[in-house]
Amino acid sequence: MITLYTPATGFPDLEAKIAYGLARVGLETYGVDKVTIQNDGGFYKVTFLDEGETDLLDQNFNLLCRRLLSSPFIPFNTPGIGGRSANSIALDEDQIFSLKQYLSIQHAIANRKNENVCKHKSRSTGNVIGLTALTSFHNKRDGLDVIAQRKNPRDKSSPKLPRRPTNPKNICKSCALLALLGTWYASFVFNVADREVISIPIPRGRVRGTKLRELSALQHQVRRLWINQKVPQSLIPFMFLGQIPSSARILDGFDLFMATLSGGGSRAYRVDGIFLITIDSYLKFLRANSYNIASIENMKRREAFGALQCLNDIIYYGKKDVLPKFARLYCQQTSSRDNKWMSMLYPETAFYLLKEVAMIDPGIIQNEAIASLARTLRYFVREKKYGYADSIRNARKESKDFEETVAKMLREARLRLEQNEKIHLPTDDEMKEIFRLADKDFDKTKTALVILAFSFQARSEENIETEKEVRHA
Ligand SMILES: [Zn+2]
User: Fold this and answer.
1) Which of the ends of the chain has fewer CB neighbours closer than 10 A, N or C?
2) How many CA atoms lie within 13 A of 416 on its CB side?
């Protein structure tokens, strides 16, 4: 067995990329079932199940480098690597590398000044944003540590210009090339409006070669992704994952490191945002049913970013009190503006949110009395008459708001029924049941009521209706 170690640079994105680069060399050398990556906290252990020397690995590494990295094309197309760095990172013709320096653990050794961040002694290149987003100027850094310096310090009359103190660090060339191989093997590069995004899956434990192959397939799929909308930055992870439904299965067991970059081309790259997030709750939501993915798609298409922000708060931060507000925003922002058609929540998504996020038990969610009153409330929602839903949403238990709103709504419903409108009314028994539930569990009852009113009629409800009709007949 051969074990290689990433250099423990302290940059989580760089470490993962180097690990993926090493794994890629191993995959080409020994095949997919012989390779494992293990996150050891701060560095990765990359193991190949093969007796033997590293010579074959070295051979393949040099071959891969020559095949892919001997022109600045790939470096130049990597977000965060500008033209000049692309040239310096590309392979020089005479360079030969060895992976022997990855055979020993480096993490206990302190990083000295002027030393490569990877502590390898071989020839170096700049540790630029494209290799690790954490070395960069942050876009919002102005005003924090920008100092004014005279253009010519000796000349008191020369103008003062803003300067950013920098802390440039180098990295050895073989680490840089491995990071590039890793970037274009198992991380995701895509665009959101005028920004480039690079997203690296960070394994929490052990990852096998077969999983790496799946990541690589996903990588290819994402390469063409261009979200051509100005999206709030905090929504990018959720939207990105919603865009690739297969991620829900493949990315299980990974965290996500994500950096959004602006600039590029002739301008210098800058980092707009860096996230290192756990994505379990997102993946759970995406995996639950296909309507959840369709809901995201719908909000994206209609640019309902307010609603999407609410859903993000609900899923990522578990803010269940935002649920009714989300339902309202979803209908409002995804329906057509000219009132021609009304968009509502899919029942499957509504049930998921009520059950998995709000933790409301089926006794309330599937209660026929609640479904019945929700139907009446839905009639007004469909007319974009949100007053009743809002009053119920904001009602507090101590006040009589809930009872009064419901009574007022039922009065209007009865009036409309007399005018031959097709509006459903709950029975007296159903109303008794609702007040009993509200007395027992006020918040859950009103949340279920509002969410169901803002969603399409569930199929089971249609059945109840047909049954009733049959019984009447
Ligand atoms: Zn190195």
Assistant:
1) C
2) 14
